Q: What sequence folds into this?
């Protein structure tokens, strides 16, 4: 059987080794070349070469081992609840609700209460506490492709040729301001697993 395998490998010019290494042959068709480039990037993927912020990678390698307690952060707790409750609402709705709450509390208690933080602060605190950071990537406005991997340096879509960046902004700034026409969010799985693992209940349910 081994001899037969060797003959097949010789035929494909890949030398000895398991037959799945046939993929080492360099593709000549354009689409296969791109697939091969993606495979190569996945093979060589490492946290050091990742686009996660340094502090997120540090947290991933050395995650917090204590449960974050919101009991000492009543304003933040309420703001996170409001943030979750207004998930489908606009930023304006959150901020107006927050202002109404802060005004009412101030009238009743003066300075003796913890004001609700802004939406920006809430999001930043959630990132800090959970270690879960969103990764933003550019994409074609027509959803044909994402500008990642071998496409990360391209300026237009390989399928529909739509420009990656807003052409008006690009033109009026003399080609300096590159504002993506559309972006998408990725939430990496590593920090999510660490966040779940951080509480006894989460760890038990994994
Ligand atoms: Zn496109």
A:
């Amino acid at each position: 059987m081994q001899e037969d395998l060797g003959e097949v490998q010789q035929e494909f010019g890949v030398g000895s080794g398991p037959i799945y290494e046939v993929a080492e042959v360099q593709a000549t068709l354009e689409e296969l070349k791109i697939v091969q480039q993606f495979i190569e990037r996945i093979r060589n993927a490492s946290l050091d070469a990742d686009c996660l912020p340094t502090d997120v990678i540090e947290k991933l390698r050395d995650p917090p081992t204590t449960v974050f307690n919101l009991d000492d952060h009543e304003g933040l707790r309420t703001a996170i609840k409001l943030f979750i409750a207004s998930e489908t609402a606009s930023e304006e709705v959150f901020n107006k609700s927050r202002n109404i709450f802060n005004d009412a509390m101030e009238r009743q208690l003066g300075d003796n209460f913890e004001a609700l933080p802004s939406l920006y602060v809430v999001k930043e605190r959630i990132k800090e506490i959970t270690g879960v950071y969103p990764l933003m990537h550019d994409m074609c406005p027509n959803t044909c492709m994402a500008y990642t991997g071998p496409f990360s340096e391209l300026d237009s879509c390989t399928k529909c040729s739509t420009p990656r960046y807003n052409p008006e902004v690009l033109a009026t700034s003399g080609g300096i301001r590159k504002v993506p026409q559309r972006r998408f969010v990725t939430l990496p799985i590593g920090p999510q697993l660490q966040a779940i693992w951080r509480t006894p209940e989460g760890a038990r349910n994994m």
